Amino acid sequence: MNNKTRILLAEDEPSLGQIVKESLESRGYDVILCSDGKEAESKYHETEPHLLVLDVMMPKKDGFTLAKDIRSQDTEIPIIFLTAKSQTRDVVEGFTLGGNDYLKKPFSMEELIVRIENLLNTKRTDKNETESSIGNYIFNSKKQSLQYKDEDAVALTYRESQLLFHLYVNRNEVLDRSFILKKLWHDDDFFSARSMDVFISRLRKKLKQDETVQIVNVRGFGYKLIC
């Protein structure tokens, strides 16, 4: 087995599958291309990939069913769904079944590559760094705590901790508002957005002792953690 990052790509449109495969390989990834869900499931067990890119609508076994079956065996492998425009209503279901991200067709290869790298970096951070420095704070994602210098650690709620974790992984870059709403709230409607704004305000208050740390609102796009 080589040391390249292996991506299992399941896409039943031959031309699109080949384009995506070649584009990812040009970036140094090792890509296993499958044309249906059954083949993808078999290759998953044979090749032990690091990340899955699954088309939702596939013959023999659809992407959602495949992801559900794989999640029952592997809770950590990142999964990206590829969906058609008419399938956006299924995005929430995809996250519920264990998906980490989704892309709506048609999509740009640059966007797919950014999503892939983000998920791989998130997995490495989650695995290797339970404690992270955010300015003069120590954030422990496993214990759900935030400590300023030598003061006592402050407890975070699960959602506060998850939101701060994703902000930290994407620090100094914009965290997509729609993505994090679907990831943590399972919906991007008005009420979920207002709820997230409340949690952002809570995190700002807990980070206010260090003036170099900011969570800024990038209007129309999302939030950025500056540290």
Set out the fold topology.
Layout: E1 6-10, H1 14-26, E2 30-34, H2 37-47, E3 51-55, H3 63-71, E4 79-83, H4 91-96, E5 101-104, H5 109-128, E6 131-134, E7 137-140, E8 145-148, E9 154-155, H6 158-169, E10 174-176, H7 177-185, H8 190-206, E11 214-218, E12 222-226
Parallel strand pairs: 1-2, 1-3, 3-4, 4-5
Antiparallel strand pairs: 6-7, 7-8, 8-9, 10-12, 11-12
Helix pairs in contact: 6-8
What does this structure look like?
- This protein has 227 residues and is α/β, with parallel strands linked by helices.
- It has two domains: 6-124, Response regulator (Rossmann fold), CATH 3.40.50; 130-226, Arc Repressor Mutant, subunit A, CATH 1.10.10.
- The chain is built from eight helices and twelve strands.
- The chain has helices at 14-26, 37-47, 63-71, 91-96, 109-128, 158-169, 177-185, 190-206, and strands spanning 6-10, 30-34, 51-55, 79-83, 101-104, 131-134, 137-140, 145-148, 154-155, 174-176, 214-218, 222-226.
- A five-stranded parallel sheet has the order 2-1-3-4-5, with helices on both faces. Strands 6-7-8-9 form a four-stranded antiparallel sheet, with no helix packed on it.
- α6 (158-169) crosses α8.
- The radius of gyration is 19 Å and the shape is elongated.
- The termini are far apart.
- The model has no long low-confidence stretch (mean pLDDT 88).
